[in-house]
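Notes on consecutive records. When two proteins share a document, each keeps its own sequence and its own token line. Never mix them. Below: protein one.
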Amino acid sequence: MKFKVSVSDNAEPQSYPLDVVVTYEDYEEKSATSKIVTIGLPVGGKIDFDVVSSPATLYPGGKSILEVVYKNTGAAKVYNAQARISAVDPFTSNDDTAYLGDLAPGETATARFEVSIDADGTLKEYGIDSEIRYRDDLDNSKISDTMKVRVALEKKPGALFTNPIFLTIVAVIIIGAGYYIFVHRKKS
């Protein structure tokens, strides 16, 4: 006989006692009950994931690839795992799902998401919500707890030379120096 049981989320990984009783009709067609038999029901550990990658550094304006490394920190293998992010302002993404595959306990997989960042995004560290949809040993579809993917928005290197205020100041200095040299030569 097969029975489907559910296990509480806070159950510890161990063997739990389960009493089994059979009710049947005997040879005289009378209802009878067997003796109670206690069996051990093994319960595995909880399936859990962590983001183990360092905070990603992205730059406002344009598109970037956000790489996130996930680790199966649980006690069981998962199948057909897919990571998903929930992009919020200043991030947007048309491709918010990435396939991770089967992950045994302790294994990692890298997801790549294409994200766009608003040009006027505030330069600071953000936490983007992420979760993993997977199938367990019994082929049940499950969704992990929500995790935070840390993303730091920083000023693009070399942005000083494309800043219009900086370019204006440099132009004024060059024109001023040229004028000074022109006037000084004219006096000589």
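Protein two starts on the next line and is unrelated to protein one.
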Amino acid sequence: MGYDIALGMAWEELERLGLPSSNSISLFQDRYEIKQAEREVLLLPGRRQAIEMVSVLLLHYLIGRSKKGYEPAGEWISIKETYGGKLFCSNFSRRAIRPLAERFSQSPEELVKILLEDFAGRMVEGADVAVEVEAFPGVIVRILFWRSDEDLPADATMLFDRALAQILTMEDLTVLLTILADDVLEGSEQSSQ
């Protein structure tokens, strides 16, 4: 119900753009089918209806990519550096970053394991731990993690290529990164059971 207006506007924009009536797209480790005629976003393979937040994100990504294309600029930025991001940064940090930092403060190797195994991530240089995962095809998110020490608590951040902010709004980007954080935390709970 809360996403009805955003979904309606996105479906109408897709129709105006004349994109294929059916698209398949990956978001992290999941695959979705987007069916314009039925106005459905289905999670594959079981073809369950995707949650509205994910549906809006996927539709906005398709719209943005078809309008502007996506060519990585090679410059990593955080939410704070997007238009309006400074105002929303503390909420995003409280909702996504802090839980990651707190959960893995004593075991960053578990974070790495989840990102490598569950998200097909790859280790890169940076911070105490740095892993890149593919959000959408060809769209990379970099997770940086710093271990706690006697002076500072553990910390984390998520970066993405500046060009992604040209096709997704700050709100869409926070949804994207929050989905990643939630999925990683869920993977952590499942591995500890």
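For the record: The chain has a mean pLDDT of 92.
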